[in-house]
Amino acid sequence: MIVVLLFFFVALAIGTMIIGHKTDSECAWTISILSWIFAFIVFVVGIVMVVDISKSRTIDQQIELYETENSQIEERISSIVSNYMEYEQTTFSQIKNQDSMELVTLFPELKSDSLVQEQINLYTANKTKILDLKSAKIDISRYRWILYFGS
Hints:
Blueprint: H1 2-23, H2 26-55, H3 59-87, H4 100-106, H5 108-112, H6 114-148
């Protein structure tokens, strides 16, 4: 679509320049100048889209990296929680096999641990980045369609 618009405005600008040169029409020169301006704007938008599309090659790898890091964080937090549960086994005798992230939110003693808090903050930030990357991946396919009708 962007490529088609760019060709259209360049052709219109060249055509109106030729007509303006032959007829000395101010209207043709005005249309020609406006066409060049629109062609330039479309060109800049196209360049921005091409840059965004070129970044899409690494999105899957970035998502995989963040998911791997989150699984490592879950393992660390699970280890911390299990150590804490062993230490406080009499207190937690009713709770069995719950998710470690849920236990951290249930027990403020774990939440106050700065290491656990940093891990939770990193985990949350990574989840947000994963969502942003997945959203960017969706946008990239739309940009491709707008730029050159698909693919």
